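FORM 7B: Structural annotation worksheet

SECTION A. Query
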Amino acid sequence: MTSAEPRVAVVTGAASGIGAAIVQRLVRDGWSVIGLDRAPAAPVDGMRFEVVDLADVAAVAELSASLGSVGAIVHAAGFMATGGIEEFDPADGDLMYAVHVRALALLVQNLTPGMGAGARIVAIGSRTSRGAKGKAQYAATKAALTGLVRSFAIELAPRGITANIVSPAATATPLLTRGDRAGVPPVLPPIGRYIEPAEVAGTVAFLLGADAGAITGQDILICGGASL
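SECTION B. Predicted structure
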C-alpha cells in the first residue's frame, strides 16, 4: 500500500472461517474493514458489516456503489458442494460459480475505478483447483477463480494494482467437518494437522503489505506438504 491509498479493505465471507480470521488480522494491522456476508457477523471493532447475497448480481452492484474508495478487496466467501460424476447438480455448480467467481468479478469491476497505485486484490482459492475426486464442480469454479485473478493481474499491473490467489489445503473451519462431506472427507496434510485460518490470514496480510508490491498474478499454496 502507498501512503496515498486508503487503508480500507473489503472482505467477503467475513462472518466465519477464513474470512473472519482475515478480518481479525487486518483490523489488528490497522485496516478499516468492510465485511460482507449473507449471514450476520459478530461485532468487531474496526469492521463495518453489510449483509449481502453475493450470488445476487443486482445486490452486489448496488452495495458496491455505496462502499466508497477502498485500498483492497479480499474475496474469501465460498462453499463446497460435493459428489461424484453421477451426482452432479447443475444448480450447485451455478451457485458456486456465482459466489466464487462472478461475485469477485463484479466487485472488481465496480471498485477498481476508484483504486489507485498500491491497491491489492486477493482471492482465497483452493488446492483442489488442480482436481479432486468428488469435488469436480467445486474444483472447476476455483480453477476459474484462478484464471480470473491472473487475468486481472495482467490488466491492472500498469496501474500498480496487484492481484493474487492464496490456496490453502484442508483448513480448520466449520466447512471442514460439515455433514455433507461424508463421501469426500478432508485429507490431513503431511505436517500432521490442518491449516489454521490465522495462517491463511497472515499470508493475505503479507500480500496486502508494502513488501509484496512486486508480487502479482501468483497462486500461493498453503498446503502443509500436501502438494509434494
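SECTION C. Observations
The chain has a mean pLDDT of 90. Residues 189 and 226 are 5 Å apart (CA to CA).

SECTION D. Sign-off
Analyst initials: ____
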